[in-house]
Amino acid sequence: MSFSAWRTALEDLRNGRVDELRFLPERSRLWRIADRLDAFRLHHLEDGPLLSLDDLVGSQEDRAGRLFLGMYSEAGLVYAFQKYGLWERIERVARNTPVLTIQGTGESRQTFSITDGVDGPELCECRAGLRYGPDGDDEVEQDLPGPEHEPWLSMDWLKLQNPYRRFQPERPRLPGQDHPGLGIGREAMELMLISGWRLGCMGVVAFPAWFHNAVMYRIHYRFVNPEEEGRFLAMVDAWRAAEVSLAQASFDMDAGRVIDADGQAVEWRPGPLVAPLDERADLEHSKEWLARVEQARAAARYVFPTS
Hints:
single chain; alpha+beta; two-stranded antiparallel ribbon; 9 strands
């Protein structure tokens, strides 16, 4: 499937047509670019020499003190965004020269941000780190699939915003948004997977803060817990039946206006979503997982307010 077709599919997803969108665009335009990127330039420190092989040996955690996720320098991230065609789009939004900064190197969770100039408003913020398979992280309620101690790329937070635009009726504000997006959310979803692939991870794990996040991640991601996956699919069925926008559905969920079969307000408390990059971590290879999903979906009933 071409990259343009994938973009069209995501627009369909926003309008509720999600059942047919189970695919991974491995050979999209961005993946082809990723194959051709100069790995040494991704590590390159601005105004300094390229890192040597000695600098790059060791685990990703060992290298984290020097690079974002043990892989990317600030100059390397800019280089990658330029090659993907995203830096130019950020420059069109900015009123000054965009500045990319990495924070928290050497810590288990790191952040990079892009601001409009040195002291200007924030355009992008990404917080990420590594998590591991079964018994690797007690903070995660469900164990991640796949072999023990294998790394997963955890995308803990991603914000993309244009502080100079106003929300439009055809693209209303979503919960958690202070400003409209940058228009690169589709590309960002695939870049998460590319980063996980480059780091040799089993896949990417995300924690959807709102209902709309889980819906928009649906193309690649599944909830680890099969009962939660089934309940979520039942929620999507109910949302589509209500014929309201994704933004309105997410606000209704956040405000406690979505009810279950007992008439109780549904509280959005999601567990981890995973997008596998290794077939050993693919939940849908398990017949038991699939059966439990369908059982939970059939048993759950939800009602969204209608327009």
